[in-house]
Structure formats: structure tokens, C-alpha cells
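Researcher: Here's a chain I'd like modeled. Treat it as a single chain, no partners, no ligands.
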Amino acid sequence: MSGTAGASGLGPWAADLQDASWRGLPFVVRSSSIRRGRRVVVHEYPYRDIPWVEDLGRGTRVFGFTGYLIGDDVFAQRDAMVEAAETGGPGDLVHPSIGAVQANLVEFTAGERMERGRVVELEFSFIQSADQAVYPSDDDSTQDQTLDDADTADAGASDDFLSDVADAIALGSSVVSAGLGIVGQWIGLIDEAISDAAMIAGAVTGLPGANFGRYANGGRTVLQPTGTTAQSAIVALSTARAAVSVSAAATASAIPSDLPSGCQSLAEGVRATAGDPADQIRIISSLAAFSPVVLSLTAPIGAAIVTMQTATAALCRRAALTSLARASASYQPTSYDDAVERIQAITTLFDAEILAAADAGDMTTYLALRALRTAIVSDLIARGSLLPRVVTVTRAATLPSLVLAYQLYRDATRSDDLIARVNPVHPMFMPLSFRALAS
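Model: Modeled as a single isolated chain. C-alpha cells:
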């Protein structure tokens, strides 16, 4: 006998009830319960009346049953149920109204009462579980995936460049010189980029214990090493700039086979000069948009020069794009909106070069850049989706930033973020309407 006790007399609604069983052994259900909910952690803070409740996902589902076994062979049924109850691992549980689920038995009781004769009373407690153990995976993070794909794109760009210019450079030194002329123009942009005065401010952000208020752009994912001072950070910036100048001089006179590694090292050197990832993205984006004027020549030598110039310009842009991808992986978005804006700006540059690679028949680079673009978008979406959005805040009167920070976030220390976003004339007089984080 199995199922729900007295189900036949309950009415039409009970027609769909299923026979209850555990590991294929049926039992009669007298009553059942399900405990559900959410897993949360309550964070309570001094002087804050309202706690923050952190939601960790759906809570554990616990199924409880009271029921019985009945029949002349009831003790044989009981022994079989005890054996099933003591078997390790999850098993098939059929709930009368829910159906089959995978569950682990937590508690089991079987008892007899003499006045009940051939009846063994049962009590069960089950926890719904997965079919197999779930452990943390060893997959690369989205940032690591971006870095790996950037290395692959560098290798693809090198191979395609050497393949594209192999026939052209065989026609003489004038062809090689034309390519180096393109590199020289790109180096001119690099000289302007590394002279950017804003990088001095970026070099000292992220110092341990330092607070630059509205002048901190917050693009770093990690603080600078312990012991770093403002003076040592500026010295490191000067050293990196000098290293770029040396690398630029070497690349400007490199032989064609060394141009790919030279351009890629040069782009990475430029990235190293900017300590803050926000500065890295800004200055490298200008290098990735490099578009020199290519001569229109038709003679055999002239056509080779055009090929060399076009391929070299593409090599320079692609070196900048892979460095831009590495900069995006180390950049910490300040909000969901910031992450979306970064994605739009970066993918615009990538889309243009992906199209150029396809038109040129550089399929290795084309596929590598598409994969790298996908990795960048996935990374920034994954990290940006965890951040609050930016909303418009309107107040009827001018208030100090400290008051607004407490009103909006119950945390007056976040006034620095408000000041940096709004950039008011004075923190005591915030504008009536401004953009700020929603939470």
C-alpha cells in the first residue's frame, strides 16, 4: 500500500497525487512539509538603525514526512526502508504533489505501537541536493581570459604582417624605409602620449593610505605596493618614459622581421608609463586610432611601398589594441554605466580593425581580434553588472556633500565620491541636481 493516506476520499483535486517513495520503496504519507526561503547574512553596523541583508541565493529545501508502512510483511518493508535510509549519497525521492527530486536523507525514524498491529510509523527529513558534487571550477577569470586572448592576437598580428610584406620587402630598401616611415609617424603620436601631464596625477593614485579626494580617478583594481611614495611613483614614471624613448629609437630602425615584436613592446611600454588604467585606456586609444596617409602608387615598387605602409600601419594599430585590452582587464569600473561606456569606446576601435583585417585577408588576426573583443566585453560586463547604476539626484535646497552622502548612502565617508563625480565649486554647496551612484 502506498500513496497519500485517504487520498481516494479527498476529492478531485487529489487525483494527480503520486505514490510517495524513497529509493524506489513506497510508503504512505500522512502529512508532509517543505521548508523554503533564502540564504542571507545580516550585517549590523554601529549607529545604523537599518541593517544590510546580503542575499546569498536560494535557501536549502527541506522535505519532511510523517507516514507509515502497513501489511503482513511490514517488518520486511521496514528493514528494506532502514537499509535504503542508511545508504550513502543522494537518491530518488517521489513527493506526492511535487514529483521526483534528488535528495539526501538527513533523519529517519521507524517505530511500532502494539495497538496498531501491522503498522510501522515513519518520519523522514530530506534535503534536496544536486545529482553530483559541485566544486569550484578552475576556469580562468574573465580578466585572465582577456590577457590570454591578447597574447594570441599579438601572435596572429605578427604572422599576418610577415606574410603580407614578404614579397614587398624583397624589392629593396626603399620599401623597408617606407614601412619605417609609418612607424616613425606612430612614434610621433607616442611621444605626445607619454608627455601627457595628467599621467603625473595618475602615477600617485592608489598609494597606500593616500586620499586625493575629487582628484582620484579610481581606475585601479589594486593598490600600489606597500612602501611606494609619491616621489618614488613619479621617479618610476620618468624611468618608464625614458625606456619608451629608447625602445622607440630601436623600433624606428628595426629590420622587418623585428617590427612586430618592436611595435608590440613599444605599445606595452606606453601602457607601463601610465600607472592608472584609466590613463592607459585614454592614451592607448589614440594610438589604436592611428590612420596615416598612404601614398597611391602603381608601379611594381610603388605597389610594394603601398603594401608595406598599409601593413605597417595595421601592425601599429593592432599592437595598440592588444595593449588596450590589457589595460581594460586592469581597469576597475566605477559604476555599471562606466563599464558600458568603456565597452562602447573600446569595441568601436576593435570593430574598425576587425573589418580592416577581414578586408585585407588577414584571417588569423581577424579571428584573434574577434575573440579578444568578446573577452573584453564579457569581462567588463561581468564586473560592471555587480556595480550600481548612475542616477540623477535632485534636491530642493543646496546641501553639503557630507549631508548628501549620509542621506543617499547612510555613509558620510562617501562624500569624496560625490565630490569627484559632481565636481562642485565647493563641497559645502552641492548643486540642486547631479548624477551619482544609485546605491
